[in-house]
Amino acid sequence: MLNLTRPARFAAFALLMAGITGAAQARDRVTADTILTNARIYTVDKKQPWAQSVAIRDGKIVAVGPAAAVAKTRGVKTRIVDLGGRLVLPAFGDAHAHPLFGALSKTRCSLHDGKTIEDYKRIIAKCVSDTPGTGTVYGVGWEDSLFPPNGVPNKAILDAISTTRPLIFDSVGGHTNWVNSKALELAGITKDTPNPVNGTIDRDPATGEPVGSLQESAQALVAELIPPPTDADYQSSILYTARLFNSLGIVAWNDAGVEFDDAGGSRMVDAYKAVKDAGKLTTYVSVSLKWKNERGMDQFPGLLKAAERANALGIPTHTVKFYVDGVIPQKTAYMLAPYEGDTQRGAPQIAPDTLKQAVTATDAKSMHAFLHAIGDGGVRLSLDAVEAARKANGAKPTYHMVTHLNVVDPADQPRFGRLDTYAQFQPTWSSWYPYMELTEAAIGKKRMEYIYPAGSIVRAGGKLAYGADWPVATANPLEGLEVAITRQVAGDPKAKPLVASEGVSLAEAIESHTLNVAAVNGMAKFTGSLEAGKNADLVVLDKDIFKLPVHQISKAKVLVTLFQGKAVYGDLGALKP
Known about the structure:
8-stranded parallel beta sheet; globular; Diaminopimelate Epimerase, Chain A, domain 1; TIM Barrel; Urease, subunit C, domain 1
């Protein structure tokens, strides 16, 4: 037996204990699967805005910060990816999209690529030729601005293509149907047909005959002529949108207007469930249930059933979408004062008292109200409803949101902050100059000073959340970020800005497309910023948008999109330092 002196025995014991402790620490130390390093990482975390490295394990962020600190999570099998100084951001979210409608509109007779009426005529004629038979030819995507002075198209253009089969085309914003004479005939629409509630059959002022344009709820008069999508169509639409959005760096969306029945069923929710169960849903989804304007509070029990069922199926559903008004060029948006040179000011599509009651009931169930409001009158009614809910129910962690906000009266701009209500803008809409010309003709120069007042709302203490309203506008967040800052056409420094003072900073714009979207989508606990404990949802860009001239931000590209640590677009292995 080795005979050690007492000091030597103490030394040997200390070495033994140190070894045991070291082994235990090694076992307890979190080892990353992947470390992204040598990067400029903008975290959207105010405690640590910038970092050099991020460590990922099992789809979650286990460390983010200086390279030396994150390197402590390295193990024998850890994959090290040198990003060569590239910019990393949290993956983007979208607070307002129409994935099913959008994808279907791209796969049917799409007019989105048309730039002139001649383009529309050519595309529609080809769709008719490519679709034999006598059934309806339906499509989406025509622009209001190509039909001045009020965005109302005429049936004569479609009749020149076909008078023997119905032609029905939805506007890019979904508020107007353009139809031919055959569609009017089959739907039984004549000069004697009364306008439905909240809808308008546009008519020839001299004869009273329908001209071929149906506004808002009047679209329902031809709805039965449009072939309904199948369940397979819905599922394919989700997959199409997911691929598109992933390629743009988006891994979260809110489907802004899902239909349901009184029993709580929804084919749209079922489609999401099917895609998720197949392991193909490469994005977070939240669902907004569409309030039926033609009904009142009698629909609320069915809405709650639909939300309960969807949540039980694993499709988060905590938002109700209210269409408070219409659009400005056709004068269906609700304004506080009459339209320019007119006596009318539009009308709300939901009675103010009903809206207050519905939003209060929604808030009481800890659900969020998502209010479509374009005119300054619609915005005020929306904020009044939120204020009524706050007074009735007290402070609650509900993220109410008003979307579009084409015109916001200065008196209402500070109310977003006071009512803890998000202003949900489509940033690229600030560069739609043909549409803005129709808008100015309808509301005049003075009210154009209050168009999309994002900067004023932020300065008054409000928060922004971005959503493209795709397919109405491009879903590309990088293009949106640039326009949010410049208020100009993306990539064109010479373009006239739309009220330049209403631009926001790059940091504010990024937060509004990441963390703030996660908040209104009910996902801020696990995504929206790059912090330890959150899911590894991030994008790698080819250019550093913090260093680019502002008018080049839209030219940056997403190289890789990670969703829960896995690449759903691009390949980390293809990146060279």
